[in-house]
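look at this record:
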Amino acid sequence: MGRFIALVILLIPIFTAGLGIKLMRDAFFHIVQPPFSSVSFQFLMGIILFFVGFAFIGGFIFHRDRKNGKIGPRFSKKEG
């Protein structure tokens, strides 16, 4: 059950990043989606959504690998 909840929590930033990619693509082809008033604002929101989702997934993987000792010494936590 715990792994299922973790999967559901990880799906939220994945869909957020996917929505960001879709908004950037639509802005590139000058298709304005209803909540946005201009193509440039839509593209900016797409970039923000993409990077937020990407950073969350990257941070999760980094934290998990640090906890399991699978990263280099340069990125491990300093003692003291």
